[in-house]
Amino acid sequence: QKRMVIQAPVLLQMVQLWVVLSSVGQRGQARERLPELSYLEALQLTIDDVQISLNVQCKSDGETVRMLAALGSPLMPLILLCCCPVLELCRPGLGVSIALKILTVLFIGGAFSAAELLSCQFEDGDGENLGDSAFRTSLPHLRCYDGTGSAFWVDVAGYGSAFAYGVLIPLFLAALMVRQYVALQEARLFCAYAEGEPEDITLRLQTLRGQLPKESTPKRLLAAVAAYMAVHCPGKRMVRLHDGSITATSTGNDREEVRGLSVLKVVANAEAQKNVEALRTRRLTEMLTERIMLDESEDRFLIGLRSLLSKFTLCQDVWMFVATKLLALALISSVSMTNVWKWPVAFSVGMAVLVGVCQPYMWPQVNQLQAFSYLCLALTSVAFIYDWPWLARVALMAPVIMLFWQVREPDCTAALAERLYQELESELPKLQRGESHEVMVQKLRFSAQ
Q1: Integer CA distances (angstroms), 445 to 257, 440, 449, in order
Q2: Helix 342-358 crosses helix 319-335 at what angle (to 10 degrees)?
Q3: How far apart are CA 136 and CA 121, in angstroms?
Q4: 348, 374 Cβ separation under 8 angstroms
Q5: Measured distance CA(301)–CA(306) in Å, rounded
Q6: Which residues lie below 8 Å from residue 369, measured CB to CB, with a gap of 6+?
Q7: pLDDT tens string 41-86
Q8: 311: helix, coil or strand?
Q9: pTM for this one?
């Protein structure tokens, strides 16, 4: 369920950008419109799409309705964002959290509406120049070269919205990214080292600078042992907390998990695989430590960022959220140009490679879905350029099919480590009294029965 909550915005972004790319390279070209496009446009969640769905123009003055909808579509998300500081005063972190949710859902629709508000139709369906009769795409009753009256306010709203979406919002997200990076540096200032064999392992902490506060040491040790067991120790383990160390002992009921064939097992030798597992353990330990610091933090910005940061393995991977917004801006800018259709393909493929290499999300399934969605967006650009509707539909449905295919694997190592830590944390008073606690280290799987 937690993974589905993370994957839902990925699919929503995919559909919203698919709608954006449906107009790539088609300025001034008469081309048959896909029938499903009208329904998918509603997922842009703009005022203009709402009024089209409700046929408001047929019930009221069409020109007035178009004007209000065209102006409201890019401005409404910005107005909602401006209300978030008020929510922040009501409860620390609430305004930041709501602002990030607004950007997740409404950013693409608002930015695309701002671009449409400033775009003009210079050619008719036959490709002939309209000259002085060129009109605005979203407001056909206004001429492109008219800068007086209502056209002046349209330009003010359009350029103001474009500045907000293209400059102010990315700067805000970059500031939040820097804020969490500085605040969570302590999680990167220590490491855990293991002594003994996996059947009876002892973990201790080594700081890179200074010493850990004594009151924070137990939770850091729990994070270290949870990460180690998730990577190295399937089966039942008896955990015991000591002064400055923690032990995890096999109870004799180990059950090695059946793991699928991976590229690493094919190309790497045994020593290289051990090194990769050690680095993965260190990464998961840092992830759990950051989760601890987020839960203990009283910084209103970190409190608001908590739900977003929990999607990523490490909090510094939140750059991916910023990158997805910049990619959306790049695609929106590209589709309004007639001769640069290759840029959407290049941007989409580049992002797919970036996600596949960096693996920023906590769940491997989300990384796979995100990377695959960007590849499908590249195919979408090609499909609409060459007028291949069948390919566009395949690119739209492929991520949904992949999502259902991923249901077969409902768990991952990072999620297992997080569950183990939560179980051990709930038993921390007992462990601090010197008692031991038994845990079952096993990924969740669907039973055949």
Answers
A1: 11, 14, 12
A2: 170
A3: 6
A4: yes
A5: 9
A6: 7, 10, 11, 399, 402, 403, 406
A7: 888 888 777 766 666 666 666 677 778 888 888 999 999 999 999 9
A8: coil
A9: 0.86
Consecutive H or E run containing 270: helix 270-296
* 21 burial via Cβ count (<10 Å: 0-12, 13-18, 19+): buried
What pLDDT, in 10s, does the model give residues 175-225?
Answer: 989 988 888 888 888 888 888 887 888 888 888 777 777 888 889 999 999
| CA distance linking residue 436 with residue 428, whole number of Å | 10
Question: What does the alpha-carbon distance between residue 14 and residue 372 come to, in Å, rounded to a whole number?
Answer: 10
Q: What Cα–Cα distance (Å) separates residue 58 from each residue in 37, 64, 70?
A: 21, 12, 16
- 394 close to 382: Cβ distance less than 8 angstroms: no
Would you say 18 and 377 are in contact if contact means Cβ atoms under 8 Å apart?
A: yes
Tokens of 335: 């589709």
Strands 436-441 and 190-197: unpaired
Cα dist from 280 to 194, 285, 317, 413, whole Å: 14, 9, 15, 10
Q: Burial-class residue 411 by CB neighbours within 10 Å (0-12, 13-18, 19+).
A: middle
- Short-list 293, 291, 318, 295, CA closest to 226: 291
